[in-house]
Design goal:
The termini are far apart. The chain contains eleven helices and twelve strands. Helix content is 42%, strand content 16%. The radius of gyration is 24 Å and the shape is elongated. The longest helix is centred in the N-terminal third of the chain and has 31 residues. One of its GO terms (molecular function) is hydrolase activity.
């Protein structure tokens, strides 16, 4: 188990201690014995479910997901209860330091702690229910871009970009059926998969199910993909062949000219390379006719200055998930120049997707599961 998961355990432990301490001091001491038992039972579920799920993952049957999902939900519940308690305690601190905004009748009422506790738990339950629903109801995000180049005889190109599917134990075949239906309804000219198609290594049977689904997506010029940091299996030549047979061309540090009208440039993901790094963009683009539109597919929204410098017209990226679960979007917003949406710098365009699937908890709070639909207009 890596340093990351131990850090997560540590942070989760701090939040659980704070919840337990505050819950006991304001609620447990004055409650009846039966309510004390209910409190400690609820607290035990919050504290032990997430670590139990992590440690038992390798011991349970592969198709047993209930503990994993339950553990991820409890981790998010702990985070939100902690934040709400912290917000309330900061408010009380200000109230006690002279900024009085809580009426004394409410502050000193013996039922106030119980009512606040009920509101906190109820709010978190509603938020988790909404997040689960939101993750299962993807939206289409539309963009129209004007490219100051000619593209042969093409005047417009309809591009569908999908990123961060994270196909695996949680995002399974039924979850991809709406993706196929929505994509084909858009009638794209080309489909671009911007990495993290899979959630780590998956077994051959799952590969066949995934590629069978991907083969159902129809586009005039076909489907192209690049690896993401979770696509460890895309180092395997057999897996690459499976994708090819399904009509998905994987571009790893190479490019392809489409219909003598535009280029698709696919970069390998830097997170996948343990030895030799990926090619520099200038080196990768040797031999390209830059007078034609250049579409760069790069899993992470990085290296933007170089992309602009070499004449890329449109970069498509994912990876950020737009934080996926609020308030993580504040973190991704600080890490990346753009963590979601469109950006234009002179003739250079960037579009970052929040992704179709989910990583970890099957929740979307403060972000959407999306399919990106772009109309590129040429001169």
């Amino acid at each position: 188990m890596g340093d990351y998961i131990y850090s997560l355990f540590g942070f989760n432990g701090v939040m659980c201690f704070y919840i337990g301490y505050r819950g006991w001091t304001v609620l447990g001491k004055q409650a009846s014995p039966i309510y004390r038992k209910l409190f400690w039972g609820f607290f035990a579920l919050l504290v032990f479910t997430f670590p139990a799920a992590e440690f038992a993952e390798d011991l349970l049957p592969p198709d047993s997901l209930w503990l994993t999902i339950w553990g991820s939900y409890s981790m998010i519940a702990v985070s939100y209860i902690f934040l709400l308690l912290l917000f309330i305690d900061l408010g009380l601190l200000l109230n006690n330091r002279g900024i009085s905004f809580v009426p004394r009748a409410i502050k000193e009422h013996k039922r106030t702690p119980f009512i606040l506790s009920g509101l906190i738990v109820g709010t978190v339950i509603v938020v988790l229910i909404y997040g689960s629903w939101n993750a299962r109801n993807p939206v289409v995000t539309n963009y129209a871009l004007d490219i100051e180049k000619k593209a042969g005889s093409l005047k417009q190109l309809k591009v569908v970009m999908i990123s961060d599917i994270h196909y695996g134990k949680i995002i399974n075949e039924p979850r991809l059926n709406p993706m196929v239906e929505m994509t084909n309804k858009l009638q794209p000219d080309i489909i671009l998969l911007a990495g993290d198609i899979m959630d780590g290594n998956i077994d051959p049977a799952d590969v066949r199910r995934l590629t069978a689904v991907l083969s159902l997506m129809q586009a005039k010029y076909g489907t192209f993909a690049v690896p993401g940091n979770h696509d460890r299996g895309l180092r395997d030549n057999q897996l690459l062949n499976d994708f090819e047979e399904a009509g998905v061309k994987v571009l790893k540090d190479n490019y392809i000219k489409v219909d003598d009208s535009f280029y698709i440039i696919g970069r390998d993901d830097p997170g996948r390379r343990t030895g030799k790094g990926r090619k520099e963009l200038g080196e990768l683009m040797k031999g390209i006719d830059a007078s034609l539109p250049l579409i760069l597919l790069d899993h992470q929204p990085i290296d933007l200055i170089n992309a602009q410098a070499v004449g890329v017209d449109l970069q498509l990226s994912g990876h950020t998930n737009r934080g996926q679960i609020f308030p993580s979007n504040f973190i991704t917003g600080q890490i990346y120049e753009l963590d979601w949406g469109p950006l234009k710098k002179e003739s250079y365009h960037l579009v970052v997707s929040s992704g179709y699937g989910t990583w970890g908890p099957p929740l979307r709070i403060g972000s959407n599961s999306e399919i990106v639909n772009i109309k590129m207009n040429f001169q």
